[in-house]
Write a structure and sequence with these properties.
By secondary structure, the protein is α+β, with helices and mostly antiparallel strands. It has helices at residues 16-33, 53-62, 68-81; strands at 42-49, 91-96, 105-106, 112-118, 128-135, 142-146, 152-156, 159-161, 167-169, 172-174, 191-196, 201-206, 217-220, 227-229, 236-238, 244-247, 251-256. The strands form four sheets. It has a six-stranded antiparallel beta sheet with strand order 6-5-17-16-13-14, with no helix packed on it. A five-stranded mixed beta sheet has the order 10-7-11-12-15, with no helix packed on it.
Length: 265
């Protein structure tokens, strides 16, 4: 791990302040190249760091890895000083990688690269996860979802007729003809899951049949055990490991990034 730049170990700044100053200067120069220094079209920046284990702690300290907003604040001050005019909601993320994405710009004499996200470009992130049916009767017990899979509809019946006579395909489908009491409270168009590439996460949204006064959606957060209710089709929930999704009265789905191990035998 982190050995991509061993051949250049003796080059570049070696202390925390020097690395931070060089990285800030590099980012400022790349910001200025975007649309001739007009930053209002910038959505955010991804910072990638790689190197040998002996240098990793230097870079972690340089970007305040425990206080990410602090490094972002320093970038904002530089942007303000140079009138780069970044939008109010610009985003920043930092990751340590073995290799840099091909779209990223490598910094000279630094084990770092950046990718500036604008409205016209983005790095396509990828992930896969699993939805498991803990209560209720669906076509399958476990569904694999991927970032490339597009919008995944959740509801009762595989092909469900909705308003206007049209049919909707439910990719996670609860059986319409079932004796399971939980299925009766699931709408034909209850919810859907989408991949958010900017934030690198799967998100759950309620559909028309899954908001009050009809059937409902609740999420039991695995992070803090809070109960979250989706009351609008525009309100999305970022799914985290172990989140439990309750549809209607008692159908329960579990979200996980890990495949379930077979414990039998």
């Amino acid at each position: 791990m982190f050995d991509l730049f061993k051949k250049s170990e003796n080059k570049g700044p070696k202390d925390v302040k020097a690395v931070r100053d060089a990285l800030l200067r590099f980012i400022k120069e790349e910001f200025q190249k975007v649309e001739g220094g007009e930053g209002h079209n910038i959505k955010g920046i991804s910072i990638f760091i790689s190197g040998n284990p002996g240098e990793k702690h230097i870079y972690e300290a340089a970007v305040y890895v425990e206080e990410k907003d602090r490094f972002k604040d320093e970038l904002q001050r530089i942007a303000d000083d140079y009138a780069l005019n970044l939008p109010a909601e610009w985003e920043m993320d930092i990751s340590f990688e073995d290799e840099f994405p091909p779209e990223a710009i490598k910094a000279d004499a630094l084990n770092a690269a950046i990718f500036i996200r604008t409205r016209e470009n983005t790095i396509q992130k990828s992930a896969s996860a699993y939805i498991r049916i803990l209560n209720g009767e669906a076509e399958k017990y476990e569904y694999t979802i991927t970032s490339a899979g597009g919008k995944l509809n959740i509801g009762r019946e595989k092909k469900a007729q909705i308003e206007g006579g049209f049919f909707r395909q439910n990719h996670i489908a609860f059986l319409g003809e079932s004796d399971n009491e939980s299925n009766k409270f699931i709408s034909r168009r209850h919810a859907h899951i989408e991949w958010n590439n900017d934030n690198g996460c799967f998100m759950l949204f309620a559909d028309e049949g899954g908001i009050p006064p009809g059937n409902k959606i609740k999420i039991r957060s695995a992070i803090n055990e809070n109960l979250i209710k989706l009351n609008s089709i525009y309100q999305g929930h970022t799914l985290a490991e172990g989140d439990q999704i309750i549809l209607g009265e008692s159908a329960v789905l579990e979200f996980s990034y890990h495949i379930e191990e077979d414990t039998d035998g």
